[in-house]
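Problem 12. The chain below contains 161 residues. Write out its predicted structure in token notation.
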Amino acid sequence: MSKTPSQHVPPSFHKALLAGLAGGLVGSATKTLAEKLVPPRTQGQEPPPKLVVERAASAADVPLEGTAKKVATESLHWGFGTLTGGLYGLAAEYQPRTTAWRGAAFGLAVNRMMHEGLLPRTGLVEPVAEQPAQERVSEWFTHLVYGVSVELVRRAVRKRL
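Solution.
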């Protein structure tokens, strides 16, 4: 049975989470592709997921090299993007205004929290004022792409569930 716009669809935690996870996965892919167009690190900087993996491995006294480090780094990147999309899906389900600007506000908020907040505060990246302009522009642009992609997929999947 298809849903019409006039039908009220009761909130569903599981459906919202699933739709958000799907959106987060696709959003992570689109962010990765957008970084090919507007690369964030052009001066030899390491990507933040790699820095997090290296710090965690060092803290746990676990040697991590080569393929294992690459797999851990990619897993962190994709896992974070997917799980963040899942949380967004839940927020959108219960607070529809979360979807402001078709997800763009969400993407920009993720950038602000991570690249202008948590990552500089933990010393993983330079303070915002010291980051190269190219990196800042890229992170804003690619997170905007991420947020819009998450919302487009979340909305499409949620309508079909």
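Discussion. Residues 66-94 form the longest helix (29 residues). Students who got a different answer should revisit the alignment rule from Section 12.3.
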